[in-house]
């Protein structure tokens, strides 16, 4: 499956670093570039040469664009499964793993970073003091992951556009910043075609299975509202996110709301110290869920964390979830 995924992603991203002919990353323009990032105009005076990234999805956006030679390092936990069998293995081989936690001012300064690419709850946090404003005081510019943009409804509320639009926005902006617009456009075009192919086969109307995304938690489940990437991953695959009415991205809800919505399928987010099997065992044995359709019929599918946050893995996740939902449609 991993080899097939790698081949599919290379095909979808034929203008990126998967053995195809690409624009050299050194072709980036030397003049200032102004981008719209989280609703604000931001001007970058020069093309970054020592980018540091936080978390797997953000790091792989850079790799997918063939920009590993513009990176000074990345930070992320070492709970993201085997990285040696992903389409961007070369990027992981070339770029330094700075921290198995999250970025800090100290490791950013030690890396002599000239751009920090992170997101709210993907590195940036008011609680830790690691914010774009704090970095600006150090003379280091930032780019904020669009999926994580704060939307004004609260200090931690995120999401300003549909998740796939956020992915395409970031690829387009990065393409402009690094002078690799053709690569970015080809990657986006490939992703759109891959998703469109899934959409043509997807269940419609009342046949669309309802899906609950289970990230973690026993007292309260952590899940995805309508502004997190799983919302659109589920809908494009032919399902309905049972937490669509929650106007937030990643957030905690009550188990009673899960029971009330009675999902046909549960998707487990595979990451962290709690294994998929442990999460599945809990869901199947938790008494309040006994009458939920997904639990009664054991319709539980696991997707990797990197599939479910904004990343270049989103289209392949849609394809795999779509194939699973088509099997559910006839067995409800």
From TrEMBL:
Instruction: Give the record's keywords alphabetically.
Output: Lipoprotein, Signal
Under the heading InterPro entries, the entry gives:
ABC_Transporter_SBP, ABC_transptr_periplasmic_BD
Recorded hits in Gene3D superfamilies, A to Z, give: Nitrogenase molybdenum iron protein domain
The signal peptide annotation in the UniProt record is 1-20
Stretches assigned to the Fe/B12 periplasmic-binding domain: 50-332
| CDD domains named in the record | TroA_a
Stated family: Belongs to the bacterial solute-binding protein 8 family.
* Name by which UniProt lists this protein: Putative iron transport lipoprotein
């Amino acid at each position: 499956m991993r080899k097939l995924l790698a081949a599919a992603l290379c095909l979808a991203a034929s203008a990126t670093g998967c053995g195809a002919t690409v624009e050299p990353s050194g072709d980036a323009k030397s003049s200032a570039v102004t981008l719209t990032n989280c609703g604000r105009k931001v001007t970058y005076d020069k093309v970054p040469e020592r980018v540091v990234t936080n978390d797997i999805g953000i790091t792989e956006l850079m790799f997918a664009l063939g920009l590993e030679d513009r990176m000074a390092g990345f930070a992320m936990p070492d709970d993201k499964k085997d990285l040696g069998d992903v389409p961007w293995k070369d990027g992981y081989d070339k770029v330094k793993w700075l921290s198995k936690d999250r970025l800090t001012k100290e490791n950013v300064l030690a890396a002599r970073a000239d751009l920090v690419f992170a997101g709210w709850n993907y590195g940036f946090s008011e609680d830790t003091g690691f914010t774009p404003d704090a970095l600006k005081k150090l003379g280091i510019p930032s780019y904020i992951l669009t999926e994580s943009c704060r939307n004004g409804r609260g200090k931690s509320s995120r999401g300003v556009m549909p998740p796939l639009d956020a992915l395409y926005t970031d690829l387009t902006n990065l393409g402009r910043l690094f002078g690799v617009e053709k690569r970015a456009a080809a990657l986006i075009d490939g992703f759109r075609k891959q998703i469109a192919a899934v959409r043509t086969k997807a269940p419609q109307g009342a046949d669309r299975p309802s899906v609950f995304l289970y990230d973690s938690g026993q007292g309260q489940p952590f899940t995805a509202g309508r502004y997190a990437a799983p919302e659109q991953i589920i809908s494009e695959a032919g399902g309905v996110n049972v937490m669509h009415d929650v106007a937030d991205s990643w957030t905690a809800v009550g188990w009673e709301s899960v029971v009330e919505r009675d999902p046909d399928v549960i998707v487990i987010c595979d990451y962290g110290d709690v294994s998929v099997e442990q999460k599945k065992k809990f869901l199947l044995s938790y008494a309040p869920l006994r009458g939920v359709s997904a639990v009664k019929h054991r319709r539980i599918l696991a997707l990797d964390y990197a599939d479910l946050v904004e990343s270049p893995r989103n289209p392949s996740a849609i394809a795999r979830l779509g194939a699973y939902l088509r099997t559910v449609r006839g067995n409800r």
